[in-house]
Amino acid sequence: FFKQKTAYEMLRSLVGSEMCIRDRFKQYVLWSLADMYTTHRAIETRSGVKEQNLLLPDKPELHELLIHKTASHIFLREVGWFDDKEEANLIILNTIGWGVVFNNYDILYDK
């Protein structure tokens, strides 16, 4: 048998220091999509669950989440978040992002 990894162990492997910048950007895109999906599914299927982001309605539609995520990315690009210290900033974003996704997953599946 194999040992099932905890969310923390999975998170560490997803943002590990051995990744190249291209892989870190792929992780940014992946967790962004996973965040939108798990947020939407948790809000759609679980009673009493609402969006925690103050810039969004309590129960946003998937297209609203996509617009917000796209606007956030454009904002980060415009302020130069990816220009100076791109690798370090992507590590920060990926760590926070995967943490949000795992939290959404826990809410979705009542863990």
Describe the model.
With 111 residues, this protein is an all-alpha fold. 66% of the residues lie in helices and 0% in strands. Helix 2 packs antiparallel against helix 3. It is globular and about 40 Å long. The two termini are 23 Å apart. The mean pLDDT is 79.
- Global morphology: globular
Give me the count of strands: 0
- Tally of helical runs: 4
Helicity, as a percent range:
55-70%
Radius of gyration: 15 Å
How far apart are the first and last residues' alpha carbons, in Å? 23 Å
Assign the structural class, choosing from mainly alpha, mainly beta, alpha/beta, alpha+beta, or little secondary structure: mainly alpha
SSE series: HHHH
Biggest sheet overview: none
Q: What proportion of the residues form beta strands (DSSP E)?
A: under 5%
Mean pLDDT, nearest integer? 79
Low-confidence parts: none
